[in-house]
Amino acid sequence: MLWDDVPRLEGWGAGEGPQPTAQRRAGCTTACLKPRGDEPGAPDATGTNGVTLGRYIKGIPATPANKSASSGAQLKCLYANARSMGNKQEELEACVRLQGYDLIGITETWWDSSYDWSVGMEGCRLFRKDRQGRRGGGIALYVNDQLECMELHLGMDEEPKESLWVRIKGRAGVGDIIVGVCYRPPDQGDRADEALYRQIGAASRSQALVLMGDFNHPDICWRDNTAEHKQSRRFLECVDDNFLLQVTEEPTRRGAMLDLVLTNKEGLVGNVKLKGSLGCSDHEMVEFGILRAARRACSKLTTLDFRRADFGLFRDLLGRIPWDKALEGRGGPRQLVNIQGSAPPSSGAMHPNKEEVRQKHQEAPVDEQGAPGQSQTQKGSLQRVEARAGSLGGVQRNCPSSQGSG
After folding, report:
1. Within 13 Å, how many C-alpha atoms sit on residue 392's CB side?
2. Does residue 125 contact residue 143 with C-beta atoms inside 8 Å?
3. What is the pLDDT of residues 194-225, one digit of tens each?
4. Closest Cα to residue 183, out of 196, 167, 194, 195?
5. Is the dihedral of CA 331, 333, 337, 341 positive or negative?
6. In this predicted structure, what is the pLDDT of residue 207?
7. Integer Cα distance of 4 and 235 in angstroms
8. What is each CA distance from 267 to 208, 225, 247, in whole angstroms?
9. For 223-257, how does the pLDDT look when each residue is reduced to its tens digit (9 = 90+)?
10. Which helix (H) or strand (E) holds 377?
11. Which own/partner contact pairs does 99-102 have at CB distance under 8 Å and 24+ positions apart?
12. Which of 284, 276, 223 is nearest to 253 (CA)?
């Protein structure tokens, strides 16, 4: 490492860690200043004040501000929920310099017009949207100034939302990439949610979409694709309807997976890992890479491209089928079939009276213990199901409950 490129950390004494004043002057994040002496391969360089810098600064070469790390096939990205950028700007700039990030997405900037003079970053173009009317919120996206980009305006006729969309022009032979940053407040209503989902739907029609942000759905279990609350289930529907993949795998705040990275193309996003917090924020930062020349995913699963389906023709073909004849003798009450918009079945067909239920119960076969149960065929089927369940070892996947961000 070229230690001359690293800002000097004044105020360190021999054998002492960095003091708060030194952190502010040097602009290093908590992630960069975590002790690393116990990790294999940690550098053992010594600074001018006799402090082992390798114990506090991750051992990778610093990227000069005028050098683009985007010349390769991958864009290096960082996402962070800052919980106010007021005292974290220098820390963020130090991390960008050390790691050479091309895209940096920030939520909860808490910026307003009074920060206009201090939010710029050398070598980057800034897109931002501040919250209007009340404190907090706000989003931003820094883009390496060697990348050709432009902001997209999706659904601007609707009420303001904390989301922004930027198109990154691809290299020759490679398509453009749309990058989105979103912050969904915990108290956001259904109307604002639906407006956001329309934006996501419009952006997902592109060939390559990467969406990062804090959506505040702590009750979602991404392993099982389930959720407790209605709004969270509606968000899952939006993700499924737009064929998005969620690639964050670890909790980002107090055991909850609030900060997400989603994409509409398998193999587009990789190398996802958490990078500690930005300053005193209680959210973990997420680092990931966008493959500009996305590799072809080696998947053995055959999937259907529903975007190319003609659902109008499909409904027309279904309407031509004589369902009464097609379902005749199929073993179910035809009154329950209401595909063609026929009148609903009578209450008698849907809800048999108690006498009919009692009579059927008395006619039910009796097992060897004398209890009304299944027929021999039904018992055999049940035994086969139980045997198969036993072979699976009774594996259960449970997700811990957690809290959303404030």
Report:
1. 10
2. yes
3. 999 999 999 999 889 999 999 999 999 999 99
4. 196
5. positive
6. 85
7. 48
8. 10, 20, 10
9. 999 999 999 999 999 999 999 999 999 999 988 99
10. helix 376-391
11. 99/60, 99/63, 99/287, 100/63, 100/67, 100/69, 100/76, 101/69, 101/76, 101/77, 101/142, 101/144, 102/68, 102/69, 102/70, 102/75, 102/76, 102/77, 102/143, 102/144, 102/147
12. 284
Q: For residues 93, 96, 102 and 105, what is the CA-based torsion angle, rounded to 10 degrees?
A: -60
- Of the pLDDT bands very low, low, confident and very high (cuts 50, 70, 90), residue 23 is very low
**Which of 162, 127, 163 is closest to 143 using CA atoms?**
127
Distance CA 293, CA 314 (A): 36
Q: Provide φ and ψ at 361, rounded to 5°.
A: -65, -40
Specify the long-range contacts of residues 43-51, CB closer than 8 Å, at least 24 apart: 43/1, 45/1, 45/3, 47/3, 47/8, 47/9, 47/12, 48/8, 49/9, 49/12, 49/13, 49/14, 50/14, 51/9, 51/12, 51/14, 51/15, 51/16
Cβ–Cβ under 8 Å, residues 110 and 139: no
Q: How many CB atoms lie within 10 A of CB 327?
A: 16
Q: Which residue is it, tokens 């114990």?
A: 55
**97 within 8 A of 63, measured Cβ to Cβ:** yes
Query: CA 383 to CA 386: how far, in whole Å?
Result: 5
In CATH terms, the fold of domain 69-291 is: Deoxyribonuclease I; Chain A (3.60.10)
The SS3 assignment for 25 reads helix
User: Do the strands 177-183 and 209-214 form a parallel or antiparallel pair, or are they unpaired?
Assistant: parallel
Identify residue 130 by its one-letter amino acid code.
D
Contacts of 68 (CB under 8 A, 6+ apart): 102, 144, 146, 147
Quick one: DSSP state of residue 397? -
Coil/strand/helix, residue 150: strand
Mean pLDDT, residues 258-266: 95
Other beta carbons within 10 Å of 210: 26
**Separation between Cα atoms, residue 1 and residue 274, nearest integer Å:** 23
Q: Name which of 14, 123, 12 is nearest 62 in CA terms.
A: 123
Intervals of CATH 3.60.10.10 along the chain? 69-291
pTM across the whole model: 0.60
Tokens of 71: 């010349």
Give the pair of three-digit tokens for residue 55: 């114990």
Q: Cα–Cα distance between 230 and 182 in angstroms, integer?
A: 20
Q: For helices 190-203 and 230-241, give the axis angle rounded to 10 degrees.
A: 10
Backbone angles phi, psi at 244, to 5 degrees: -95, 150
d(CA 94, CA 100): 10
Q: Are the C-beta atoms of 273 and 259 separated by less than 8 Å?
A: no
